[in-house]
Amino acid sequence: MELKTVLYRLNGLYKLGKTAPKLRGKVFVNKFGTIKIGKNLSITGHPWAVQITITKGARLIIGDNVYVNAGVGIAANKEIVIGDSVKIGPRTSIFDSNYHRIDSADKGELSKKITIGNNVWIGADCTILPGVTIGDNSVIAAKSTVNKDVSSNVLVGGSPAKVIRELEIEEGWIRD
Question: Where does the source fall among the domains of life (predicted)?
Answer without folding.
Answer: Bacteria
